Amino acid sequence: MIPLMSTPSLVDRARTGRPVDPPDPADAAWLVERVVGWYDTAARDLPWRRPGTTAWGVLVSEVMLQQTPVARVTPVYEEWLRRWPEPGHLAREPAGEAIRAWGRLGYPRRALRLHECATVIEQRYGGVVPRDVADLLTLPGIGAYTARAVAAFAYGAREPVVDTNVRRLVARAWRGRADGGAATTAADLTRVAALLPTEPTRAARASAALMELGALVCIARQPACPRCPLAQDCAWLRAGRPEAAEPRVGQRYAGTDRQARGVLLALCRDNPDGVAARRLVSAWPDPVQARRALTGLLNDGLVVRVGRGRYGLPGFEGERTTSPPAPAPRAVASRGDTTRGARPLPSVR
Predict the structure, then answer these.
(1) What angle do CA 112, 113, 118 make, to 5 degrees?
(2) What gap in Å lies between CA 13 and CA 183, rounded to an integer?
(3) What are the pLDDT digits (tens) for 215-244?
(4) Closest by alpha carbon to 344, among 153, 63, 131, 64?
(5) Catalytic-residue membership of 116
(6) What is the C-alpha separation between 151 and 60, in angstroms, rounded?
(7) What pLDDT score was predicted for residue 349?
(8) What is the DSSP annotation of 94-130?
(9) Taking CA 273 as the corner, what is the angle to CA 258 and CA 254, rounded to the nearest 5 degrees?
(10) Could you tell me the pTM of the whole model?
(11) Which residue in 62, 86, 97, 116 is the catalytic one?
């Protein structure tokens, strides 16, 4: 554990047992530096954190990691970046190839959004992922969290990157609450922004460190408090680890329309020439639910008609689409360059 000199606010909190909200800047600086020190030795070796990862690689990782475990994402991510190392490579492929490469990661509309993102980046931004949050928000399917994550982790911007792990960690360590809530609020962003160091690159690394601590140690169930670098000053521990007022209920998957859609989409993914409607419907025990799932896939653009009574992935209607040649690799700016094309700084994550 990294040694810590207590600041007056820490002493006051220890004496009164009351959390400080929003965090006191002096309190925050000491504690966050302790988290970053922990991260320097405990961070996982993940492909999107390695030196040389481009902003496109960061964007792909953030989209894939939404509601999907790291272990499932890693092999798909590595194959995706091997095949499409730049947005232009993906933009020149049929959308159906993105869906096929997505495999069984779940929530396959993300594959379509990534394909649309690649197209917009290629056409509007010259093949370079934009660095500003406002520009990132113009990309298809990119919300506030992903935009801030790409700005921070790809370009070293000082942006509060707040996911469920960060909300839970901040709620416990600084507010004495068991849970950070179901969604990120403006107050959450303000709290986390108050915790970040002033220097942008250091702030980006602090964001990664807070997220990692919440993912590995301050987990929802059975947190490993003895291993936590914040344990001696955690407001939740001092309060006796009170339970959440409303425990969350996990989402059911078996038998849902989402599972039915997955079964039908897998058939289309495995059959490039398309699948007969009757075969799709018979692939699921409930024909009414199967037809509803097929209609949903059609409405979402994940499946299209590829012939009379046949359905398949988009981009393969009639004759199989032949993709034009991939774009030539663009020059990538050096580490010290701060232009739009610069690679992320290896020290950020």
Answers:
(1) 100
(2) 27
(3) 999 999 999 999 999 999 999 999 999 987
(4) 153
(5) no
(6) 13
(7) 75
(8) -HHHHHHHHTTSS-THHHHHHHHHHHHHHHHSTTS--
(9) 15
(10) 0.82
(11) 62
% of the chain beyond a pLDDT of 70: 81
Give mean pLDDT, residues 54-79: 97
Higher pLDDT, 286 or 331: 286
Tokens 């339970």 -> residue: 243
Which two three-digit tokens encode residue 42? 């405990």
Phi (first) and psi of residue 6, to 5 degrees: -70, 135
pLDDT of residue 244: 77
Concatenate the DSSP letters of all residues of 229-281 into one string. Answer: TTGGG-HHHHTT-PPPSS---PPP-TTSHHHHHHHHHHHHHH-TT-EEHHHHH
Q: Are 53 and 47 in contact (CB under 8 A)?
A: yes
The two three-digit tokens of residue 145, written as one number: 């969290």
pLDDT at res. 335? 31
Q: Count Cβ atoms below 10 Å from residue 155 Cβ, excluding itself.
A: 25
Can you read off the two tokens belonging to residue 349?
Answer: 């994550």
Residue where the block lists tokens 């359905």? 311
Could you report the per-residue pLDDT of 97-135, keeping only the tens digit for each? 999 999 999 999 999 999 999 999 999 999 999 999 999
Residue 4 CB neighbour total at 10 angstroms: 16
Nearest to 218 by CA among 266, 143, 168: 168
CB of 159 closer than 8 Å to CB of 152? yes
pLDDT band at 94 (very low <50, low <70, confident <90, very high): very high
Q: How far is CA 182 from CA 166, 168, 189, 226, 258, in A?
A: 12, 10, 14, 26, 21
What does DSSP assign to residue 69? -
* 3-state SS, residue 169: helix
